Amino acid sequence: MPNSLESNVSPALLHTFANHPFHVRKDMEMNELVDSIRESGVIVPLIVRSRPEGGYEIISGHRRCEACRELGIEKVPVRVQELTDDEATILMVNSNIQREHVLPSEKAFAYKMRMDAMKHQGRATSAQLGPKLSSEVLAEQVGESRNQIKRYIRLTYLISPILQMVDESRMAFNPAVEISYMTPEHQRWLQAEMELCEATPSLVQSRRLKEMSQSGTLTEHYLHTLLTEQKPNQRQKFFLNQSDVQRFFPPGYTPEQMQNTIFSLLKTWGHAHEHTQNQQELER
Fold first, then answer.
1. What are the pLDDT digits (tens) for 143-165?
2. String of b and e for 83-106 (b: at least 16 CB within 10 Å)?
3. What's the rounded Cα separation, in Å, for the pair 149 and 145?
4. How far apart are CA 138 and CA 114, in angstroms?
5. Which has the least CB within 10 A, 26, 86, 91, 107?
6. Closest Cα to residue 177, out of 166, 161, 192?
7. How many CB atoms lie within 10 A of CB 164?
8. Per-residue model confidence (pLDDT) at position 131
C-alpha cells in the first residue's frame, strides 16, 4: 500500500478527481448520507492525493465531501496517499463501482479509465500480469464478463443525448451498443429522428444502421422510414415524459427511482380498484 498519512482539511482544499465518471446525485441515498454525517460525523476518512498546484484531489469520498459542504463542516478527515495517475484511477474506480445505483454511462467511462490505467501498468510491469489481458483481470475483479465490459466501453462512443437516453432507460442497452459504431454525424441524424418519431430502433434495426453507417450508405430519409416501420410483434406503447413527472418527485430522484415509485403506486391503485369492483359485485 502506498505511503499515507491522516489529516483534517477544509473542504475548500478538496477537488474532484479529473474526469470523474461518477455523478454526485441529490437523491435519497445522498439525503441518508447527509443525515448520517450530521449525526455521527465522517467515520471513514476520504482518500486523497496532493496536487502540484495545491490542495488535494479526491480519490474516494466525493459524496462524503459534498455532504460535508452541505452541512457546513469546516474540517474533513482525509487519508493522503502517494499515488501515480494510474494507481489513483484504479483506486477511484474500485471505490465507486460497487455503489448500489450506478448509471450505464458511469460504468462505461469508469471501465474505460480503469482499462487504460491497467494497460499502462501492464506495459510497465508485464511480468506481474502474466498471460492475462487487462480485460480478463478487470472482468474477474468487477464480476462482469469480458464481453460485457467491452459493451459498456462501447457506450463511451455515443453522443451525449443518446447516452443520456440509455441512462434514463429510454433506449435499451444492446441496441445502444450497436449504435455506438455509427459515425457521430449519423448518430446526430438518428437522435433527431428518434425525437421526431418518438421511437427507438430495435436490436435488429440497430445492427442494420451500424452496417449502413460504416458502409456510407445511410441517409436521413432511410432513418425516418426505419423508425416509422411496424416492428414484428409490435404492441402499442405508452410513454411518460420524464420532464412531465419529475416535478412530483424530490430533487435528485433518478429515472429508476421514479419508475419504481410509479409502479408501486399503480400496483396499490390496482388492488384498491379490484377491491372496489368486488364490493360492487357483492352489492348487486
1. 788 899 999 999 999 999 999 99
2. beebbbbbbbbebbbeeeeebbbb
3. 6
4. 8
5. 26
6. 166
7. 16
8. 45
159 and 184 Cβ atoms separated by less than 8 Å: yes
The position carrying cell 462482469 is 144
pLDDT, tens digit, 9 for 90 and up, residues 166-201: 999 999 999 999 999 999 999 999 999 999 988 999
Give residue 271's pLDDT band: very low, low, confident or very high (50, 70, 90).
confident
Give how far the C-alpha of residue 178 lies from the chain's centroid of Cα atoms, to the nearest Å: 18
Return the closest-CA partner of residue 183 out of 162, 153, 205: 162
Q: Which three cell numbers stand for residue 195?
A: 425525437
- Name the grid cell of 13: 482544499
Q: Are 149 and 139 in contact (CB under 8 A)?
A: yes
* 86-125 per-position pLDDT tens digit: 888 888 888 877 776 889 999 999 899 888 887 776 644 4
Half-sphere exposure in the Cβ direction for 80 (13 Å, CA): 12
The set of cell numbers assigned to 26 is: 441529490
| SS3 of residue 4 by DSSP | strand
The sheet that has 76-81: what strands, in order across it? 4-9, 76-81, 46-50, 56-60, 14-15
CB atoms within 10 A of CB 51: 13
pLDDT band at 127 (very low <50, low <70, confident <90, very high): very low
Sign of the Cα torsion 129, 133, 138, 144 reads negative
Nearest to 59 by CA among 67, 51, 48: 48
